[in-house]
Amino acid sequence: MLSSVLDQVFRRESGRVLATLIRQLGDFDAAEDALQDACTKALEAWPRDGIPDNPAAWLTTVARRRSIDLARRRKAAPAAAATLSAVPAPAPGDDPAAESGIGDDRLRLLFTCCHPALNRPARVGLALRTLGGLSTREIARAFVEPEPTTAQRLVRAKAKIREAGIPYEVPGPDDLPARLAAVLEVVYLVFNEGYAATEAESFLRPDLCREAIRLGRLLVELMPGEPEARGLLALMLLHDARRPARVRDGELVPLEEQDRTRWDREAIREGTAVLDAALPVRRPGPYQIQAAVAALHCAAATAAATDWPQIAALYRALLRYTPTPVVELNAAVACAMAGGIDPGLGWIAAIEARGELAGYHLLPAAKADLLRRAGRPEEAAAEYRKALELVTAPAERRYLLRRLAGLDPAGPG
Fold this sequence. Notes:
2 strands; mainly alpha; 413 residues
């Protein structure tokens, strides 16, 4: 029971605690080791003393003290130990996770990870690991790549930051644009992991969604003239507005079956207003386009009223900015829903033939759904089985099994 509580605390607080530790220690690996040691100490102390009122502050303080002790014992970095000793420990009532505007530790960490000296996969992967607290497996899923490849990239990225002396800071105004694309990508990937968790039993991780939206607000404050920052914030708000209806009794509910009265109308109004504020700048981009798609879904009173032709047109526009196989798959599905299931299936077949999404469960899942709609149950069942071989999230697995059982009373075989 306690290990489960600690896991929840770690999931919720690790990004903010780790950001504080990296600022204090100046080293990614040392901060991660210190946090892990603090978690071990928590398993020893909390059963005896009870869970503290502020678990994040407890973990931060214990991790900091542990890192000072190690530095002193090894005598390998006396200067570092002296520096650490000079940093005041949090007072009992202090919250190291408290927001501090643009000086926010997590925002600093985000920009540190997204330094131009690191290549794009390294920037994004390291930020997801440290800021979002995502596992190597979860990051590999985001990149659609093997886990060992992700692990090696993370090791190299941390070494590069250490060796190059990359500062832990929010860069000046002139340097912000060079990092914006990577920063926005990381925030959205953190949100996506909260919106559809790779391994969590509950499927949803609201803590990550809230953290990504919080960072999105800070980015709009930091860069008010950047329409894509507003586009990303609008996109996250509009997606998150549907979260209350996405799971019922622990089971995943697809968009067309959701109870739309449970959608957060205030979040929809805010997201739409944020998007409307971005459009007059007349610098369209992928996040604004995706937010427009989300807004169309939110505006439909029923699933049947969804403006699929407009959504299909938006996805074709998105492909010009983001010509990735995942976006292309979404465009193919939108094309099918706009009135051409056979052309949509043909497009998916072309994507499948290229092999770029060979390990991506949503490709056979999307294909199965279209085949089901087309009244081809045997072919749909075969695709659902392919998706089941690839899916990792328990809630998604149960959803696919239900769909399969609805086609084939004999079960998944």
